[in-house]
Specification:
Helix content: 25-40%
Structural class: alpha+beta
Number of strands: 5
Distance between the termini: 62 Å
Largest sheet: 3 strands, antiparallel
Low-confidence stretches: none
Strand order of the largest sheet: 3-5-4
Radius of gyration: 25 Å
Strand content: 25-35%
Shape: elongated
Length: 136
């Protein structure tokens, strides 16, 4: 693949008497960085961070088994070896951590086909719209 086919080169095209003049310049920064030199770099969110009601901006959140185990391994990395399977100990730890984080309900749900744990459903009672619904 040539440089002009990627975003590694910036091109200026001018039309003069039906002849296309193309001027290519190598760029070292992305076009977004060139356009806004004073903007702060975007901070990336933490991988496998424990979900909170404020961070998710939703009343419900589903964490699949892989995410639950990854969060557990991240929190418990100094104490023991990394876990690979969902255990009762991990479920109890996750429920306790979810309730401490502000979730009102933390329920592990089984997979429909094989009856293993599919993940954990976290929820809080809705706060928006409840007042409007009772007055109308």
């Amino acid at each position: 693949m040539k440089e002009y086919q990627t975003q590694l080169a910036m091109q200026e095209i001018q039309v003069e008497h039906r002849v296309y003049l193309v001027h290519t310049q190598q760029i070292t920064k992305s076009p977004q960085q060139l356009a806004s030199k004073d903007s702060q770099p975007k901070t990336s969110r933490e991988k496998f961070a424990f979900p909170t009601p404020k961070a998710t901006e939703s009343n419900e959140c589903f964490c699949d088994t892989e995410r639950v185990i990854a969060i557990y391994n991240k929190e418990q990395q100094k104490q023991s070896a990394k876990r690979k399977k969902m255990t009762v100990k991990i479920q109890q730890w996750f429920e306790h951590k979810a309730l401490a984080a502000g979730w009102k309900i933390a329920k592990f749900v089984p997979h429909a086909h094989n009856n293993r744990i599919a993940g954990c459903m976290l929820s809080v009672p809705p706060t928006k719209g409840v007042i409007d619904a009772t007055t109308h």
